[in-house]
Amino acid sequence: MWDAGMIAMGVAFFAIAIAYVKGCDLLSHTNKSLDGEAAK
Amino acid sequence: MTANGWIQIGLFFALILLAAKPLGVYMARVFERERTFFDVLARPVERLIYKLTGIDETHEMRWTEYAVAMLLFSLVTMIVTYAIERLQHILPLNPQGLAAVAPDLALNTAASFTTNTNWQSYTPETTMSYLTQMVTLAYHNFASASVGIALAIALVRGIAGREKKTLGNFWVDTTRATLWVLLPGSFVLALVLVSQGVVQNFRPYDQAKLVQPMQTQVTGADGKTTTQTVATQTIAQGPVASQEAIKMLGTNGGGFFNANSAHPFENPNALTNLLQMFAIFVIPGALTVTLGRMVKSPGHGWAVFAAMSVLFFAGVLVAYSAESHANPLLHGVRQTTSALQPGGNMEGKEVRFGIANSALFATVTTDASCGAVNGMHDSFTPLGGMVAMVNIMLGELVFGGVGAGLYAMLIFVVVTVFIAGLMVGRTPEYLGKKIESYDVQMSMLYVLIFPLSVLLFTAIAVRMPSLGLSSLNNSGPHGLSEILYAYASATGNNGSAFAGLSANTHWYNLSLTVAMLVGRFLMIVPMLAVAGNLAQKKLAPPSAGTFPVNTPLFTVLLVGVILIVGALTFFPALALGPILEHLLMQAGKSF
Questions:
Q1: Which B positions 529-558 lie with beta carbon below 8 A of chain A?
Q2: For residue range B434-448, what is the model confidence (pLDDT) as tens digits?
Q3: Which of A14, A21, A34 lies at the smallest CB-CB distance from B64?
Q4: What does the alpha-carbon distance between residue B400 and residue B496 come to, in Å, rounded to a whole number?
Q5: What is the ipTM of this complex?
């Protein structure tokens, strides 16, 4: 029981981390140049 | 402080400086897949590994694929580690018949070694079998270090790349880091350590008869105290040297024995002590040269090296000075330096190494994300202990962990370039690349996750006495320092303990597990996002507004930004911990 809980906790963290990769990638679409021009 | 102490510190730094260029150039050649003298041995092994595992070494990865590969690799190896810890009682190489590791401790240890933290909530020689130490813990010492180097190289490729969508191949980078850098370095260092007296065997523990049997008071389960005579001492053995070498070279820090590098079987003499500190800094120092070579700006690599050196010497100066001062609470005790005694604070220090080498070791191990110790940080003076804490809180970018130190520093370089751009009203540029909003957002995400984890977990532990305070051995500001240090060490993937905190409880095992995972992986992802974004940019020609990143001005600004960000973030917590403890010590109160 404990073992299942511990492994689930580890797997859950890495699942969140993979979703976080996707989230950071999506955020790149909001990228803007800091000199006011569109980012290239 | 003594001239002898400073000569030893100077000798150590001179060795790092001398090794930086040849090793840095060698690593650049390894990761740019140029020919090296070691190809004759490593290349056939590399080809065999790719053939057996089906890896296409020509495949290039976008930053997202690189990140997911790294995460899945870490998850699988972490679960395997957990399983071996739980099953060690029925597996071979367990001559002491040690029991299975408890579930929460097994998870904590698996996360700890996967993240290059090597936080140890247990006594190794009475908890881990030889098989667990070798197959899981020593393996992770290699794997987590090679992942760190690969990630730093990916960021450097991002800085150096022009209109590219990829950062390299995670599997190739980790394989090459292991075969070309970590394995040969560890092999040589392990042999040297064995020659100096570090043990390497599979024997059961020795029993030694005490020359003078001693009597000790033991409290039984019924609460009654009895006097027992102790006539024998158990002396732990094991395959120590092979683990010791990569423990230092990979900035892992997890000791084979509980006393870590204060144990004579791990660190027998002054030469091994010097070699161990050298092994901690040599790869992180050399990676700055690798950076300079790969981005085709050697001066930038040396400017980063200089910033690290300034912060390193500032830390050593404060730690050595604090530990050399007499303790005002020890009345009537002669504490000046003489031929008969070292002077200053010797509590918790190995007499073989003394104050200078203990202060230097503590600074080195916390500048890097190593965490090995040759003295007890908890027994340092409040200001001496604060140096270790501040080094971790700055992000362990003063040379830092293998790879982790360089990418932490480069994130601060992006922030520095951004601030420099704001100061002069120009678009910030870094080595010809315009820094954009996404780069700054991801860099700040990287910077903010660290204090969020440290301060949040510390606050919960302090505010919930049944969870955080029940296993604390000291009260007042020193107790706060112990909790603060634990979460900073875990989130920073350092792994050293301030001690004074019995961390093998459900709360600490699980909360420190989360802190270690957050501090490793949730910081790596935005760093790789910066790398991926930088890689695809065009190079802008230098203009009058371009901020050169290979000058002393850049070094000063970089150091300033690091100190200001660190001070603004952690000063309130430090004021309530070591600073308050220092002032109260001067007023005659200890904790």
A1: 529, 532-533, 537-538
A2: 898 999 999 999 999
A3: A21
A4: 14
A5: 0.89
